[in-house]
Amino acid sequence: DGRPVNGDANVQGLVDDVQLTGRMEYSYWSSHVDIDKQFDGSHEVQRCFVAQATVPACDLRVEDWQPDGGQALTTMGLYTPVVYLVPGVATLLGASNISWFLARIISALVAAIILALAVTSLRVRKLTIVPLLAVTVPAVVYLASVVNTSGLEIIGAIGIWLSLPGLLSDARRDMWALWCFSLSGLIVILARPLGMVYFITIVAVCTIASGRITALLDFARRHLWISAAHLGAIAFASFWYLAIYNPRVDPRMAEHLGPDVALVEQLAHSFGDITRVLQEAVGDLGSLEVPIPRLATLAILLLSSWIITTGWRDASRSVRLATIALIALCVVAIIAIDLNYYRILRGYGVQGRHLTPLLVGIPLLAARRARFTNGQRYTIGAIWVIAHLLAGYTALRRYSVGLVGDEVLEVFYFPQWQPALGIVGTLFALTLLLLTTATVTVRTTRAEGGD
User: Which terminus of the chain is less hemmed in, N or C, by CB atoms within 10 Å?
Assistant: First the structure.
């Protein structure tokens, strides 16, 4: 849920070559690690405002917290440590706000590299990049800018959805797409406990979209090094899940579990979670307590629908079939994740970020060969900018004064917390960044629809 330094502790524990010890306290996936206790300052920073939407953020720094006895706690101790190695390099500087922000920058840089590789490949193939605006929603941008395995998993999934269809459709040597697919695949497989399932699902859907089942086998034979790397990662991730992760989250280990309910009731609740999951996938900005305005969520969903329907007209029969199959798989995944959470915790824990790696594939696949007029591109870009501005303002309001009442201008007059650039400076910088991104995206001079 976007809490960065927790991940750092996990990596530092790996660097120190310390055995992770699972604990049932704090949360079922928590672990204590033998590292600098100062890293627990990350929890203290959060406790002053997280899960309290009406309470502003505080200025407590990680390095200023006075540690108590015992070992440091990480809530990510059972995840595969490989992806955490990337931002975790920053934790070698010690437990401080500087290492925290550096870890975020490293994580965001990796995400930017993946997107740059994918976009370059699309432009070489003369394909539109407008559908990217449908998937770079506020929640995705937020997760990609913090140290969170979901953020890198989602960006990795976007990289696969953008690169693999082209690699399966022809035998050209597209090095941009090859590097994007190889890097993105490793990240998706290793980021989270069941990432290998998402990777296999995405590859299967892209194979259906290609119209030839043999396309995947042909690609695997042409690029054995990529196949070997991904198969090796899947083997490691499967071992980690079966031997380390799954045994530690066995519900029989819990000190207390609520009463069980009938499967029919669980299914009914899971179906009811679909709309909530969509809202979180679009606009959750941290700890499930900072939703973007409903108007912005509605605008983004309508924008995505517009992009999908525009691409649907030019999509092949196999692409349409793959898109429909993907939508069905998303529904099945929501239900399966909810049922699994209920088995472990007697609660329904599916979140939007859990489904986003699959959801982003819908517009990216359906509108891959879409053609947009200049008017359509600029309208889509304008809606995207406005939606993100509303989201950014909401996040600033939540952390500066708290989400209290209907006074929307208090953030400018009486902020109790503000970022380094101040409220106005941050909004101005955000506006410039959004306008630049949208302009570069929509002002494309090459032909669309594919070469």
Answer: C
* Same domain (yes/no): 82, 114: no
Taking 3-state DSSP, the helix, strand and coil percentages for the chain, each rounded to the nearest 5, stand at 65, 0, 30
Give the other-Cβ count within 10 Å of 355's Cβ: 23
Structure tokens at 293: 């305005």
Give me the residue label for tokens 């990216």: 364
Structure tokens at 413: 């007059």
Residue whose structure tokens are 């559908």:
131
Distances (CA, A) of 315 to 202, 301, 305: 18, 20, 15
Domain count within the chain: 2
Contact (CB, 8 A) for 268 and 347: no
Q: pTM for this one?
A: 0.90
φ and ψ at 372, to 5 degrees? -120, 140
Q: Cα(136)–Cα(447) distance, rounded to whole angstroms?
A: 23
Q: What is the pLDDT of residue 48?
A: 80
Query: Are residues 272 and 132 part of one domain?
Result: yes
| Residue 401 within a domain | yes
Residues 6+ apart with CB under 8 A from 248: 22, 29, 78
User: What 3-state class would DSSP assign to 289?
Assistant: coil
| Domain that includes residue 359, residue range | 100-442
If asked whether residues 281 and 166 sit together in one domain, one would say yes
